[in-house]
Design brief:
The chain is 53% helix and 0% strand. The chain has 86 residues and is mainly α. The chain is elongated, with a radius of gyration of 23 Å. α1 packs antiparallel against α3.
Length: 86
């Protein structure tokens, strides 16, 4: 991703969540009920999960949401001193 101030594209959030979901599903199926072929990978299953979690972390740090402009002080209406609770 570039370091421009534009928000990330809509599919980027799905990619982030996909990495996390796939990592969780992979480790759960390997430890609880291995799918065909997972036993043959042995310890490499943990490497795959580590790579997916690293991708998740890296992509999450690059994600930029849609920033909302903060409300300017002059746009706010000042509170009436008579309305204060004593």
């Amino acid at each position: 991703m570039t370091s421009s101030g534009k928000p990330s594209p809509p599919w980027f959030g799905g990619l982030i969540l996909g990495c996390l979901t796939l990592a969780a599903a992979w480790i759960l199926t390997y430890t609880l009920a291995p799918l065909p072929g997972q036993n043959a990978l042995g310890g490499w299953n943990y490497v795959i999960v580590g790579v997916l979690l690293t991708l998740f972390t890296g992509l999450s740090m690059e994600w930029r949401g849609d920033p909302r402009e903060p409300q300017k002080a002059q746009d706010r209406t000042p509170a009436d001193p008579a309305d204060r609770v004593r």
